[in-house]
Amino acid sequence: MNPDNETLRIERSDGVTTLTMDDGKANVMSVRMLRALHGAFEQAAAQRDIVVLTGRAGLFSGGFDLAAFKRDPQELVTMLTEGARLTERVLSHPRPVLAVCSGHAIAMGLFVLLSAHWRIGVDDPTRILQANEVANSMTLPHFAIEVCRQRLAPASTLRTALLAAPHAPRQALEAGFLDELAAPADLQQAVQARIGALRKLDAHAFSATQQRLFAPALQALRQAIDDDIAEWRVGFGGARG
């Protein structure tokens, strides 16, 4: 574990790295949180671990740290760049990534969720999954659109990206945000059952098949990230990422 990190708890056991986001507030994707996640995924990849990514009860992530938009442009570009690149890192992780959507998943939190290989949600109608950028007068980044495209059907992509439609967990399951739902009391049992199923996948075959399966999506995502970074550097005062 890493008790000194105040945003991300890391636990490793028997080939599984569990990452729990908890900044005590909205689990925002700040530069600090994003760098902690990148480092944890890099270490898990080196160890060839399955990754379980979750948040504390009731909250997966509220998205980017909006306060950064009012601070240093350099920090903002760094945050956006690290967030975009995290989606690529999650999607291309060499072992399965299991995202456990413990509650609200908003904006960047939703895009990270969509990048995981399997997603379990809590069957709680008070929890919302939403890409709310357009509703908040923000243009959805190229990378976010590509993340939606690689996982959602066209109709769901339109409702999500363009219309900023909020989804309760059962709607999210139908739309493709989630692969399964579990009652709050049964969540940990569902997680352990899914980990057991993922362990049975041959590691080499998974990685090789993943590379073939995701090659077009990753190529499109990398180009989208490059396009976004170029726009951010110009749009936010010429800051360098």
List the helices and strands and how they pair.
Blueprint: E1 8-13, E2 16-21, H1 31-47, E3 50-55, E4 58-61, H2 73-91, E5 97-101, E6 103-106, H3 108-115, E7 118-122, E8 129-130, H4 142-151, H5 154-162, H6 169-175, E9 180-182, H7 187-199, H8 203-235
Helix pairs in contact: 1-2, 2-3, 2-8, 3-4, 4-5, 4-8
| Low-pLDDT sequence parts | none
Distance linking N and C termini: 30 Å
The largest sheet is: 6 strands, mixed
Radius of gyration: 17 Å
Share of β-strand residues = 15-25%
Mean of all residue-level pLDDT scores: 95
Record field, number of beta strands: 9
For the largest sheet, list the strands in their spatial order.
Answer: 1-2-3-5-7-9
How would you classify the helix and strand content by structural class? alpha/beta
Order of helices and strands: EEHEEHEEHEEHHHEHH
Q: In which range does the helix fraction lie? A: 40-55%
Shape: globular
Concise account of the structure shown:
By secondary structure, the protein is α/β, with parallel strands linked by helices. The chain has helices at residues 31-47, 73-91, 108-115, 142-151, 154-162, 169-175, 187-199, 203-235, and strands at 8-13, 16-21, 50-55, 58-61, 97-101, 103-106, 118-122, 129-130, 180-182.
